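Troubleshooting log. The previous structure file for this entry was overwritten by mistake, so regenerating from the original sequence record. Sequence copied from the archived sheet and checked twice against the printout by T.R.
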Amino acid sequence: MVVGIIGESCTGKSMLAEKLRVLLNAEVYTGKDYLRLAKNEDMAKKIFQNKMSEATFELPVIYVVSEKEHLELLPEKAYRILVTAELDTIKERFAGRMHGKLPAPVADMLERKHGCFDSEKYDIHVKSGESDLDEICLSVQNAVKAITGQSIY
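Regenerated output below.
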């Protein structure tokens, strides 16, 4: 089973991925992490896509996507979680990553990209700051169980 966590930077995808990693005992890949699987990008993509096609309930893969071009790597049948946040929240979190100051070009980039995943297909929508992550994780666990027909012990 593959779980795709999709959204802009600083929306809470990594926090959700970590909670799901523990709950589902999954392997997590973020962005271009797949590049560590081989020396060249094309081979790494093939290995990664094969790994995802072989993912099962017992050995799930979580793929955290924050760039639109990486959506093509998600299998069609992946369980997709869209994670969104208000633009002000994203800017505040991003500024925290940059030691409290958000340069104008970065702010402009965040504004341009805001909402870029909103029209993508998803199975569940997590609104950062509004959704309870523990409840979301249990919902995802139950959905994965239903999709795969497996028991969770």
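The chain has one domain: 2-144. Archived copy saved in two places this time.
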